[in-house]
Amino acid sequence: MKSLKSLLTLTALTMAVSGAAFANESTVTTFKKEAVTNVNSMIQNQKESVIADKNSLKEKAVTTKEKTKDAVKSVKDATKEKMDVAKEKAKSMKSSETSSIKDKASEKFNSAKEQVKTEKEKIASRAKVNINKADAETLQKLSGIGEKKAQAIVDYRNKMGKIKNVAELSKIDGLGETTIEKIAPYLTF
User: Fold this and answer.
1) Residue 87: helix, strand or coil by DSSP?
2) Is the torsion defined by CA of 73, 77, 80, 86 positive or negative?
3) If you ran DSSP here, which 8-state letter would residue 188 be given?
4) Which of 5, 12, 16, 54 has an alpha carbon within 20 to 30 A of 39's alpha carbon?
5) How far apart are CA 71 and CA 157, in angstroms?
6) DSSP labels for 123-164?
7) Can you give the pTM of this predicted structure?
8) Pseudo-torsion of CA 169, 172, 174, 179, nearest 10°?
9) 35: helix, coil or strand?
């Protein structure tokens, strides 16, 4: 009997431990289910928060894009308006100033042309002239030599031959000492 009593005690003890274990297992399962539910709830809240932030950022991006578009359009419009004003101003200036610029340029050109002509004449009058080869027209370019004196020099040359020096010029009718002194530096023989 003692063994039966031991066996009964042991069986009761086993049942008690199994019941306790069974009770603990049910608590753990419940705790586990609650934990999973809480975690799923937290994940869902985070997802909703991220989606809300994403939508908010999209709205801000769209708003910023529209503002930028408007700003660019207004700058383009302002620039176009300024360009139109500048073009109109340039047109009005061009038409009024073009004629005065052309007139001034024409005046300067004519003035320069006259100066060149005067300088050419001065150079021609100072250039050395070969008295034995020059015609009457070329001789007239010398200072103090007119049509009659030039013809007298040509006639003398035709009668007497080559003129050899300045002293021989005094033999030509109509050429005085003053005239000979003026033209002597510009003659070659």
Assistant:
1) helix
2) negative
3) E
4) 54
5) 94
6) HHHHS-EETTT--HHHHTTSTT--HHHHHHHHHHHHHH----
7) 0.36
8) 0
9) helix
CA dist 170 → 48, 81, 145, 165, 184 (Å): 127, 84, 14, 10, 11
Domains and CATH numbers, the chain: 126-188 (1.10.150.320)
Q: Which residues contact 150 (CB under 8 A, 6 or more apart)?
A: 136, 137, 139, 140
**What gap in Å lies between CA 17 and CA 113, rounded to an integer?**
133
Output the CA–CA distances (angstroms, integers) from residue 41 to 38, 138, 162, in the order listed.
5, 121, 134
Sequential DSSP letters for 44-78: HHHHHHHHHHHHHHHHHHHHHHHHHHHHHHHHHHH
* pLDDT digits 0-9 by tens, 37-61: 887 888 888 888 888 888 888 888 7
Which of 134, 137, 131 has the alpha carbon at shortest distance from 171? 131
Q: Position of tokens 């939508």?
A: 55
Contact 150, 137 (CB under 8 A): yes
